[in-house]
Amino acid sequence: MTYRIPLVEDDPVIAGEVQHHLTGWGYEVMVRDGFDDFDAEWAQLSPHLVLLDLMLPGRNGYHWCRLIRRVSQVPILFLTSAADNLNAITAMAQGADDLIAKPFDLGVLTARIEALLRRTYGYAAPAPVIAHRGLVYDAARATAAHGTQEVELTRNENRILQTLLDNRGSIVSREALMTALWEDDTYVDENTLTVNVARLRRKLADIGLVDLIETRKGQGYLL
Amino acid sequence: MTGRVFLRWLRARLAALVWLALAACIFALVLHLYRAPVQAALYAGLICLVLLCLAGGADYARYLARHRALQRLMQALPESLTHLPAANGLLEQDYQQLLTQLAQLHAQAVTGQDARYQRLVSTITRWSHQIKTPISAQQLLLQRVDSAQRMPLQDELNKISRQVDMLLNYFKLDAGADDFLFAPTALKPVVAEAVRRHARLFVLKHLRLTVTVPEDVQVVTDGKLLGFALDQLISNAIKYTQEGGITIAWTAHSRTLTVQDTGIGIAAQDLPRVTEHGFTGTTGHQDTNATGIGLYLCRRACERLDITLMLASQPGQGTRAQLIFPLTPQPKD
Questions:
Q1: Bridge-partner residues for A31, per DSSP?
Q2: DSSP-assigned states of every residue in B246-274
Q3: Residue of B128, B133, B225, B243 for testing the chain A interface, max A β-carbons within 10 Å
Q4: Domains in chain A, please, with CATH?
């Protein structure tokens, strides 16, 4: 099963990039900038979570939030460039579950979506899984698998692997990895990063994925 | 005080007094030439003098009372202009009209300025929100770029984004916006989020960071504005620290959050002035990017949050900023 997430957003670039990223993480994202016939379209979408922009042409995000709440209890996540207190309170009062300020980081958005889905549907529901060159990565459970073998990842290893997968096919600099860890409230230094990457490599090698993470001297890592 | 008023009154009546003296002299001369009895002249003169003194005394009392009434009106401008004392004569009436018209012109000008300022604030607020859409779009587009190329672009975008936030908060604080929300707030997440916004800079400069804020610390504050104030302190700490690191620590007994760095510090003569609007330092900080706004906004935000901001520095050793939280918070309007 795939989680269906409508994204109500009028900026084509933002909508396109969010859709691209979330699709890469195994979600089904449908972009629109509003609803013509809400009831019919809602039934057809039958979403698991809704991403709502606040300022839209025509009716604003609050309006759609109210309509959704009349028929459904799905998690609603607001995306807004005016994330001041007033808007946050209004959004929550209309039944929103969370609010992300623009500009946002796609990693942060994914993490919030995962948290909301987990809170609503529990761990039992299938979590989005990424398969890449034999590696099957489960973000919600923080595990890496290959064939029948599976390893659990520590928080840092999980964040490193997630960042590498986010950029799969392109080089990720050590600084970018460190920044990702810092953004996860782990204030690591160069040495710690080296140790963490080495441990992650060993774990992947243990399940038969030898040299999955390539080192590019002076540039970073590639997965 | 009263003596000076008396002299001023005397000077105002000088012309009349001179005329009276002249008239007395003419009378004395003519009566003398007609050989009138000195006694009679003196008697008439004495009566006149007594009456003059009585009339003069009454006039002075009125003069003093009026002077004091006007002085009192000056304390209550501009409302007092609507109840000026009854005009005494045509000229006073003219002056009063001048004043009233001036007050009206002034009121119109102030109202006009206020309206213009409110328009400016709302335009800037709307603009700040609008500009975030292309910034967000750019940010998302960047995540597709190779990380080696992405990072410098990302850094510049972050700078733009932070400048927009500074502008928005500048006007929010300046216009006395009231959408700040005081509520019991966990301190740790506010600190963590502020650090997250600077993660990249910490990594780039290889700075250490130690955060010792217990999870259970709660403060009554506006989390967003506090985060903004912390942004300024952390950003400055990173900017002026080349080696070593930054410590963010909570001291429970004094309810103090300390941001300490091992940077170049602030010269003693600059320290009292660094939170002034537009102050960029006299020595040491050879930074052309300094706008002199960051610490000013930090101070304004702290004032709004009823937090005492204390700065101490040892040039060459580092700077310590302390945010002292109130025991019973009293948000200011």
A1: A7
A2: EEEEEETTTTEEEEEE-S----TTTGGGT
A3: B133
A4: 4-121 (3.40.50.2300), 129-222 (1.10.10.10)
Mutate to test the interface with B, among A175, A186, A194, A219 (most CBs of B within 10 A): A175
Place of tokens 């269906």: A4
A80: its two tokens: 């807004």
What is the per-residue pLDDT across A80-104, written as a single tens digit (0 to 9) for each? 887 777 788 888 888 999 999 888 8
Between the two ends of chain B, the Cα-to-Cα distance in Å is 40
Q: Tell me the CA distances in angstroms from A112 to B234, B269, B300, one per residue in order.
A: 26, 47, 33
Question: Which chain A residues are Cβ-neighbours of B192 within 8 angstroms?
Answer: 185
Query: Hey, are the CB atoms on B141 and A103 less than 8 Å from each other?
Result: no
Distance from C-alpha of B61 to C-alpha of B67, rounded to nearest angstrom: 10
pLDDT in tens, B251-292: 999 999 999 999 999 988 889 999 999 888 765 555 555 678
Report pTM: 0.78
Q: Do A167 and B181 touch (CB under 8 A)?
A: no
Domain of B9, in residue numbers:
2-75
Pick from B191, B319, B308: which is nearest to B254 by CA? B308
ipTM over 0.95: no
Asked, for residue B93, whether it belongs to a domain, the answer is: no
CA–CA distance, A29 with A21 (Å, rounded to integer): 10
Query: CA A176 to CA A182: how far, in whole Å?
Result: 10
The tens digit of pLDDT for each residue in A50-80 reads: 999 988 888 889 999 999 999 999 999 999 8
DSSP-assigned states of every residue in B41-68? HHHHHHHHHHHHHHHHHHHHHHHHHHHH
